[in-house]
Amino acid sequence: MSDSNPALHHRPLFLLLLLAVLAGGLYLGWQQFAPPAPPRLSDQVTRLPQPRPIADFALIDHHERPFTLARFQGQWSFVFFGYTHCPDVCPTAMLDLKRTLEAVAAAEPAVEPPQVVFVTADPERDTPAQLARFVPYFNPDFIGVTGPQDQLDQLSSQLSSLAVKVPNPDNPDNYLVDHTASILLLNPDGRLEAIFTSPHNPDTMAADYRELARYFKESS
């Protein structure tokens, strides 16, 4: 005896549609609450397992405006410790940072560009006026920072950056400063997020920065 009720013929199709809707809902829910994919980084950068907080400090920029921890908050920051009389490492690092920002700006999709902060390891010679002659040469938006030695030490020690003056007995005013060549990345919370070791490749740094910024945004 044949089943003449049309509703019974449509029941399997209805169940399949119901299962598809439930599966779609579960997938969307999983996507919404799943943790973001970890950043895929090059071997040029070390990401800290837990971003390192930084205590406040009191310095000035090359416009002689106060430069404190607040200037690191609300945006990403590349930070480099160097000195304007440096014959090679510092000009190279600043040029690499200039090219890194250009690579960040050229890539799609767009991400917020970081600020670049050059902190002197030689406050004896790097006055605000001297920094104003050096830092904007690479990019008018770059920021030069100087101030009292104890405040510079407070900031550099928190960022694991070292500097040692190398006296020149033959010409005391023409001394060198041995210093860490790494470039540091602070996140918008003003915490140390990652360390880029030298030599620096601007294209690789830009790709790493984009990954770190993407992961930070998706994790927030």
TrEMBL record:
Gene Ontology molecular function, alphabetical: metal ion binding
Keyword DNA damage attached: no
Disulphide bond pairs: C86-C90
InterPro entries: SCO1/SenC, Thioredoxin-like_sf, Thioredoxin_domain
Domain (Thioredoxin) ranges: 48-220
Residues annotated as transmembrane: 12-30
Keyword Transmembrane included in the entry's annotation: yes
Keywords (A to Z) from UniProt: Copper, Disulfide bond, Membrane, Metal-binding, Transmembrane, Transmembrane helix
Binding site for Cu cation: C86, C90, H179
Pfam families reported in the protein's UniProt record: SCO1-SenC
Family statement: Belongs to the SCO1/2 family.
PANTHER family: ELECTRON TRANSPORT PROTIN SCO1/SENC FAMILY MEMBER (PTHR12151), LINALOOL DEHYDRATASE_ISOMERASE DOMAIN-CONTAINING PROTEIN (PTHR12151:SF25)
Official protein name in the record: Thioredoxin domain-containing protein
